[in-house]
Amino acid sequence: MGRDITLFPQKATKPELKKLLESNGFKPCKHLWDWPKGTLNFYWFEHEDYKSIDGVSADIYPLSDEERDFTDNEWALHVRTRYSASVDDVKIMNHILREGRKLFGGTIDGDYGKNRYARLWDDNSTPLSRGISMVYQRIDQEIRTVLFSLPDPMLKQPPAPQSQAGKDIADFMKSKDPSRVIYNGLVPFAVAMFEHFFSEIFQILIAYDEVALENRKNHKQRIDFETLLEVGDNQRTIENIIASNYTFQNLNQLNKAYKDWLSIDVRNILYKKKKIGSSINFLENKITEIIEYRHEIVHRFEIDRTLTKEGYTQILETIQLSMKEFIGFLNKKYKIDVTLD
Q: Distance of alpha carbon 179 from its chain centroid, rounded?
């Protein structure tokens, strides 16, 4: 679902519409949709201060016979944003339509009716809140994807036995289910989500936090020429270089990074009792267990045949709770409002 609006110019050539888009920062791209032959596809995305969430797509395409009621011009301009787009995304969408209509005349038509632009809204977000929200939404979506596609046990189990000996045999048979190997294989993926979340949030915070910005003035670090070239080509940022000094897959190192640069004690924030599955545990303890779990699998190839689908689901639940707990802290500390689903 999204916002779809089309400009039907009174008179505009394909090169003129192309120039309109390029002069406003749109870049050529490929499109998943099967557009008519001759269509040019573009996109716009603003990385600065996390102003874009989804960006804007724009397509210059030849009119169909059904659209000849709007204009005799050969080419039209279709622009689109998703409903999850930022207000800046929608603003550039409206800007392109207005500027195009001013230059080439014609009619716009779409989700909001004839000659009506997409509605804007009050936006109280900040670069911090937008950046944090972007990271959280991405990882949360991946967790939801894994939960949706996580396979059920492959072996059909008989009715639960009553005797202890029967239960032991049943547990042994369950441990041979091939799906448990898959659950083990997904543990490193879960830890990667945790690591990515705290690494990305750290880089966002040190770009805007006053304490971190002050610390940067006195920070000394040797940087090789190759890294300088990457920074010059916008392949890496100063924040990314600082983050590379720490290992966010290690809770002690992660905590040290946040303490060194932001005076934030992550371990203390996660030292909260939460219901995970049917039991109540400290988040910090569970995260430590999961990281060690991943270490045993990756470095010793120790497959835990007792790990069930429910057990892996609880690992993802722990990651989600940790992210939400930390964002709740950041909302209070920085007086922002990152909404969590």
A: 28
Q: Which pLDDT tens digit goes with each residue over 271-323?
A: 999 988 888 989 999 999 999 988 888 888 888 878 889 999 999 999 999 99
Average pLDDT over residues 28-41: 87
**What is the pLDDT averaged over residues 204-229?**
82
Q: What mean pLDDT is predicted for residues 19-42? A: 91
User: At residue 229, does pLDDT exceed 90?
Assistant: no
> Is residue 115 one of the residues assigned to a domain?
no
Same domain for 90 and 175, yes or no, is no
Question: What is the DSSP code string of 251-270?
Answer: HHHHHHHHHHHH---HHHHH
Q: How far is CA 177 from CA 18, 304, 325, in A?
A: 57, 12, 35
In angstroms, the CA 10 to CA 14 distance is 13
Q: CA-to-CA distance for 20 and 42, rounded, in angstroms?
A: 11
**Domain-embedded: residue 121:** no
Domain count, the chain: 2
* Cα pseudo-dihedral 195, 200, 202, 206, rounded to 10: 160
Domain assignment of residue 298, given as a range: 127-334
Is 143 within the bounds of a domain?
Answer: yes
Q: What pTM was estimated for this model as a whole?
A: 0.83
d(CA 289, CA 309): 17
106 with 136, same domain: the answer is no
Both tokens of 159, joined, read: 């009715």
- CATH number, domain with residue 65: 3.30.310
State the amino acid at position 194 in one-letter form: F
Confidence of residue 250 (pLDDT cuts 50, 70, 90): confident
- What is the C-alpha separation between 266 and 284, in angstroms, rounded? 9
Q: Are residues 303 and 174 in the same domain?
A: yes
- Find how far residue 128's CA is from the centre of its chain: 15
Contacts of 267 (CB under 8 A, 6+ apart): 251, 255, 284
Residues of the chain above pLDDT 90, percent: 60
